[in-house]
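Morning F.,

Quick status update on the modeling queue. The single chain you submitted on Monday has been processed. Sequence for confirmation:
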Amino acid sequence: MNFKHMTAAAVFAGLIAGCNVMGTPLPDPRLSGRDAEFMALAPQARVNSQFERYLVDYKTNEPVGSIIVDNNAKFLYYVMPGGKAVRYGVATGQDAMAFTGRAYVGGMQEWPRWIPPKDMLERWPHLQPTADAGGLPGGPDNPLGSRALYLYQDGKDTLYRIHGTNEPDKIGQAVSSGCIRMRDIDAIDLYNRVKVGTKVVVL
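Structure tokens below.
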């Protein structure tokens, strides 16, 4: 490349394009029916560009089709063939509550019902009426968002989830009670790629 006759801005743009630092942006999944209806009403927020959805280079010994969550970096990777992965930005559990280890997807739900867990009720008693009513139906204001993947170990529900969120502005932060939160559109995209039995590794 001959830099002599190029402006500084053009040189910078060329270098950035050549490096492809962020990876390749991926399109949103197509929405229809209830997804289109609820997503039009769901809370929206811009996230830092690094936490958007990209196809990236990614080396791992885990098999294709695995989910790997990096709690520190706030990224979730879905392992693809050819040394690639789909990378999503996530919000993770606060330090004392974050899940780590190996698990697998033991269940999957679209627009799941949310029932406050016991430990949450102890911290926030004002949620007891929601629990008594059988939980909050799935919808755009539900804390579990558009999708939920239920994490299991040895045939037992860990009570940890990978799920959407009604607080997309928190992506990139350690704020949850232990679950891994995704933007609703990203939760739908991941849901479309996985199946019951998918391996999950949380670092």
